[in-house]
Design brief:
194 residues; alpha+beta; Beta-Lactamase; five-stranded antiparallel sheet; 5 strands; 41% helix; globular; disordered N terminus; GAF domain-containing protein; GAF; GAF-like_dom_sf
């Protein structure tokens, strides 16, 4: 009997720093968070198809990342592209609103190549229509959009949403970047039919 071939290696994305989120650094994850991180990375690098791996990772992010209540991954086309996904209907709608209004943190990150944090949607002034609809209609309070890159090309965004203002201010950026790299790789696999 011959052994099954090893799964193809995913591209190793390079992530830019988050320039306006430096104050959110923490000392690092605790034992429970580290265990959950390992489980999430195992899912992303697992043997299941790329769509299933992406969905399972997005489903676990709200339990893994303190302050994250909803999560989405959007491609260069943003929103509901074939290589995107969301943890739930709130994240899916928040992304759809960005596409409808042509503004918001995920689109900003995608267009500028810089990740962005929004501490309080009610006081944020960069995307007034999106912030108003996301805070009033979806009851979101904060957002953090991380740029995903493969090589030197921006491939999408990983966006975390908090239900209250300031919920994402203390996100461990090292943890988030550790998760963002394999998510970008899974998105790349989806684009190539993997």
């Amino acid at each position: 009997m011959t052994a099954a071939p090893a799964p193809a290696r995913l591209p190793r994305p390079v992530l830019p720093a988050i320039p306006d989120a430096g104050r959110g650094r923490t000392a690092g994850p605790g034992a429970a968070q580290t265990s959950a991180l390992v489980a999430c990375l195992d899912v992303l690098r697992g043997d299941q198809d790329a769509r299933t791996r992406l969905q399972q990772a997005l489903d676990v992010l709200p339990r893994l990342v303190p302050g994250c209540d909803h999560a989405s991954a959007a491609s260069g086309r943003h929103g509901g592209g074939p290589d995107g996904g969301a943890s739930d209907a709130v994240a899916r709608r928040a992304d759809a609103l960005q596409d409808e209004l042509d503004e918001g943190p995920g689109l900003h990150a995608l267009r500028t190549g810089h990740s962005v944090i929004v501490h309080d949607l009610e006081t944020e002034e960069r995307w007034p229509r999106w912030c108003d609809r996301a805070s009033a209609g979806l009851r979101l309070g904060s957002a953090l959009a991380v740029v995903l890159t493969v090589g030197r090309r921006t491939s999408g965004t990983l966006t975390l949403y908090g239900d209250r203002p300031g919920r994402l201010s203390d996100v461990d950026l090292g943890l988030l970047h550790t998760l963002a790299a394999p998510i970008a790789g899974v998105q790349a696999a989806l684009r190539t039919g993997g």
